[in-house]
Amino acid sequence: MYSFSAHALKIILSLFGRLKIYNKDKMPRSGGSVIACTHTGWVDILWLGISILPIQIHYMAKKELFQTPFLKWLMRNLNAFPVDRENPGPSTIKVPKKLLKENKVVGIFPSGTRTSEEVPLKRGAVTIAASSKVPIIPVAYHGPNNFKDLFKRFKPKIIYGDPIYLPEDMPKKEGMEVMMKDLNDTLKELQNELKNK
To answer: Which residues form the Phospholipid/glycerol acyltransferase domain (predicted)?
Structure first.
């Protein structure tokens, strides 16, 4: 279902403008990893999944998207899993840790919400990556944010950054703070770089 849907979406969305992908070679060729992408609208979710084909992304999504039978079926078939953003607990990282142990890719939007404003990043991506000993791949998107924007011929662009690893030469707590800063700084740099391309 995922592969078919992604390729079908690629054809449909390409009618509105071809996706430009930069530095995809920075994505590790094997092993699990956490993709942390900027999030300004629902379209970036689709383009991110398309940009990384044939690799499949397992998206962390708010539990509210699983409340109706159809949406629940759709989200499951698109490799999404629910998370309670209001009351995160130890069980929140159980599913992504299992996926990463199976060498899969987990997609997280660290802003936690769709916004074009600068907001503090949530710690989920760093916590999961550090606990699973896998890298975070920072990714920035610039382009249409919603269905209406697609008709403006606003060409979508995605850029991948260098993997961010938990430093091995310091305590884990301090290392996670370094990862948070690196992720925040890198996403800002990638967004600015995309705007000038």
So the answer is: 33-144
DSSP letter string over 87-106? S--GGGGHHHHHHHHTT-EE
Which of 31 and 92 is assigned the larger pLDDT? 31
Report whether 47 contacts 21 (CB < 8 A): no
Letter for the amino acid at 96? P
Closest CA to 38 of 145, 106, 111: 111
Cβ contact 128:93 at 8 Å: yes
- Domain 2-195 fold is Glycerol-3-phosphate (1)-acyltransferase (3.40.1130)
Block residue for tokens 């689709």: 46
Instruction: Say how far apart CA 41 and CA 44 lie, in whole Å.
Output: 6
What are the tokens at 140? 């920035």
Strands (E), the chain: 20-22, 33-37, 57-62, 81-83, 105-108, 136-142, 157-160
Look up the pTM and report it.
0.86
pLDDT digits (tens, 9 = 90+) for 139-152: 999 888 777 766 66
136-142 and 105-108 beta bridge pairing:
unpaired
- For 45-73, the pLDDT digits (tens) are 888 999 999 999 999 888 887 888 877 88
